[in-house]
Amino acid sequence: MYAIPFLDIPPLLHAGGTVRLPGSKSISNRVLLLAGLSEGTTTVHDLLDSDDTQVMLTALRTLGCHIEADGSSWRITGLGGRLTVREASLFLGNAGTAMRPLTAALAMLAATQGGRFELSGVPRMHERPIADLVDALRPLGCRIDYLGHAGFPPLRLLPGSSNLDLSVPIRVRGDVSSQFLTALLLALPLLTAEQTAIIDIEGELISKPYIEITLNLLARFGIAVQREGWQRFVIPAGSRYVSPGAIHVEGDASSASYFIALGALAATDAPVRIEGVGTDSIQGDIRFIDAAEAMGARVTGGPGWIEVSRGRWPLTAIDIDCNAIPDAAMTLAVMALYADGTSRLRNIASWRVKETDRIAAMATELRKLGAGVVEGPDFIEITPPLRWTPAAIHTYDDHRVAMCFSLAAFNPLAVPAPAAPVSVRILDPKCVAKTFPDYFETLFSVARTRSDWIPVITIDGPTASGKGTLACAVAEALGYQVLDSGVLYRATALAAIRSAVDADDEGALAALAEALDLRFESGAVLLDGIEVTALLRHENVGTLASKISAWPAVRQALLQLQRSFRRLPGLVADGRDMGTAIFPDADLKIYLTASADARARRRHQQLEVAGVSTTLESLLAGLKERDARDQNRAVSPLKPAADAVLLDNSALSIESTVGAVLNCWSQRGPFA
Ligand code: DC
Which residue, judged by its Cα, is nearest atom 20 of ligand 1? Predict the structure, then answer.
């Protein structure tokens, strides 16, 4: 309901534990295209589920491939090189790994079999060059029109000469993006049943490891490309796609770079273990390990796993040619903030034509943190900050900018340590969905910090004031955890009913509270492994909860459990004493009220919707009785904390109540 405009990451101190990485983007989209062009069905295991792969799956479906999800696998039935759909408009988002190869494959199919296709994307995609690929395809007899600016998508592919001529070698530039060569290599087997295809590279080929991935996957689909150095690639006559039947996608090595860096920065006790990609990876970015080691990381690994811990500290500044690891090298730029001098990343001209101009983006955002940055056409130089400044990091719709800057939150570890550790605000954090939708959740599962650095917003108030709804909405907007403390008292009450413990037996009730086996799973509450979400809302459970919550021993028994919800990146806690007893140091305390009449009316409506029949009068009476009990008990009576913001929402919609709280937060939070 509430989009997250930003995510604030508090200063972080430690890392350790195991992460599993999503599938590689580069492998996923190549495999999907190859499966889509092959004859028969290919089962793809561990495919990356992200914006860029969704774009490719949708395009293949539009083109007539039969695609079904089967648990964590996908079954793709390919076209076998024959067009079944001859006219289509394909929207390819900002996925270069879809735009380039589909342009090549569909240009060849449109020419030889009479198709008409339009390929477009987001505005940034229309600024990413494609002329070199178009110029390589046109001499074969492909017909390609630019629909916007010459040299850039959107494109129209039209019927051309039905016999594309491979007698002359295809020439393509290799020094702008290796994706043009990849696109040709992936598509040319459509034409090589009877003729040999030869590709000659003009200029120095960049990002060679990505070409290795392409060649490796082509081999899995029956195409043995012969290569002469990095200058000439030959696909012999008689080559045609043969599906391997099943294929496994390894974890993304570029995504691994954030966790390798994490280990190098902050794994001082246990290592950070990465599963899904290992030192046997076919992805070039796995060589990021060498660069991380050069800076000081201690790395071990094997097939499908890597373990990283801190070695030298501070990190050693490096001067390194990043041509072979262009994507992962962005992570080095942030590691450089923790180095003992100036680091220089060279040979990264390709950064300028990626999701955004990454050299400009990294320079601008690193400077915001206080770093000294020099940028050139194909290099960047980074000197660690003398003074760290809290920064709102613009992410340019670039997943990698968002992911690598999260590592700046480890600034308390910098040498010398900043006098005041700073939070890092990541703007538009959802852009990580391009390759790693759960990136931040994964990061927070292995990152740790002082609990008093984790922000807390408390929302206290009487029953039916709308605290729960408000807390959930605020937590969703900020990407925070949520604690509905009433559930803990209700669960204790339910456990008491079940084991026939008397409401006056303080000791037995406290023992039940202490031993509660409660779990929270995607919105559901499980008590002793059984779902009790709806049961907990019953009036008799609520009334008993109100009674037993007056016992000091019960409140004491639930104290630690409540405080344990203070987890990264922050918490919104609702209840009666969140701001007074449980989180007295909370960063923002809201005391939410509404008139008894307004609350009784809301509760009445809720119950009606749930099909429970009651009268407004009995609800109002029960509510007043509960208010009196909650307000007059000896321990933690319901009352606003001295520093609470009082908010009466009798006449406010839920949206404006949420807006009011977020507004208070923007004036109180780390970026006030
Ligand atoms: O918020 P709720 O209606 O789910 O809470 C049920 C009862 O639990 C409430 O009447 C009083 C008690 N409670 C409490 O004493 N302290 C809290 N922090 C939360 C709830």
Answer: 486
DSSP 324-388: T-TTTHHHHHHHGGGBSS-EEEES-GGGGGSSS-HHHHHHHHHHHHT-EEEE-SSEEEEE--SS-
Residue 291 near residue 319, CB atoms below 8 Å = no
Percent of the chain with pLDDT over 70: 99
pLDDT above 70 for 617: yes
pLDDT digits (tens, 9 = 90+) for 241-276: 999 999 999 999 999 999 999 999 999 999 999 999
With contact defined as beta carbons under 8 Å apart, do 507 and 554 qualify?
Answer: no
The tokens of 655 are what? Answer: 């949206």
Q: SS3 letters for 495-556?
A: HHHHCCCCCCCHHHHHHHHHCCCEEEECCEEEECCEECCCHHHCHHHHHHHHHHCCCHHHHH
Give the residues across from 227 on adjacent strands.
233
Q: Which residues approach ligand 1 with their CB closer than 6 A? A: 463, 485-486, 489-490, 542, 545-546, 549, 575-577, 626, 630
Mean pLDDT of 112-116: 96
User: In sequence order, what are the residues at sequence separation of 6 or more whose Cβ sits closer than 8 angstroms to the Cβ of residue 487?
Assistant: 518, 525, 536
Q: How far is CA 657 from CA 19, 200, 201, 571, 648, in A?
A: 38, 64, 61, 18, 9
Taking 70 as the threshold, does the pLDDT of residue 380 lie above it? yes
Note the pLDDT tens digit of each residue in 411-431: 999 999 999 999 999 999 999
Residue 530 has what pLDDT? Answer: 94
pLDDT category, 3, cuts 50, 70, 90?
low
pLDDT above 60 for 1: no
pLDDT at 4 > cutoff 80? no
Q: Whose CA is nearest to atom 4 of ligand 1?
A: 486
Q: Please, are residues 429 and 477 in contact by the beta-carbon 8 Å criterion?
A: no
What atom in ligand 1 is closest to the CA of residue 578? 18
Under the banding of pLDDT at 50, 70 and 90, the label for residue 109 is: very high
- Residue 2 pLDDT class (50, 70, 90 cuts): low
Mean predicted lDDT score pLDDT of the chain: 95
**pLDDT at residue 358 is higher than 70:** yes
Sign of CA dihedral 78, 80, 85, 91: positive
Task: Report the interhelical angle of 506-514 vs 485-498 (nearest 10°).
Answer: 120
What are the DSSP calls for 390-443, one per residue?
-EEE--TT-HHHHHHHGGGGGGGGSSSPPSS---EEEESGGGGGGT-TTHHHHH
Query: Do the strands 197-202 and 170-173 form a parallel or antiparallel pair, or are they unpaired?
Result: parallel
Mutate to test the pocket of ligand 1, among 465, 488, 549 (most ligand atoms within 8 A of CB): 549
Number of other residues whose CB lies within 10 A of the CB of residue 497: 15
Q: What would the 3-class secondary structure string for 3-52 be? A: CCCEEEECCCCEECEEEECCECHHHHHHHHHHHHHCCCEEEEECCCCCHH
Please report, in angstroms and rounded to a whole number, the separation of the first and last CA atoms in the chain. Answer: 24
How many Cα neighbours within 13 Å face the side chain of 457? 33
Would you tell me the crossing angle of helices 25-37 and 208-220 to the nearest 10 degrees?
40
Closest residue by CA, ligand 1 atom 7: 546
